[in-house]
Specification:
By secondary structure, the protein is mainly alpha-helical. The chain has one domain. Helices cover about 80% and strands about 0% of the residues. It has three helices and no strands. It is elongated and about 40 Å long. The two termini are about 15 Å apart.
Length: about 70
């Protein structure tokens, strides 16, 4: 198995945080990102965008792995 570089590790952590946040939203109707950074503040929007970009990054990574 390949060792993850810094960008891969950070993006994977962001995806996990995003997934756990959605779990909290789905089960408890509690948005942890909004609770920490404010409801749709600039910082929370940046966090949401980074989580989404991380997901796109990993989708492209999975495409590269499946071609090998």
């Amino acid at each position: 198995m390949k060792k993850l570089n810094g960008l891969e590790m950070i993006s994977l952590i962001l995806i996990i945080v995003g997934g756990l946040n959605w779990l909290l939203v789905g089960i408890f109707n509690f948005d942890l990102v909004a609770a920490i950074f404010g409801d749709m503040s600039i910082v929370s929007r940046v966090v949401y965008a980074l989580v989404g970009l991380s997901a796109i990054y990993w989708l492209t990574m999975l495409g590269r792995v499946s071609k090998k």
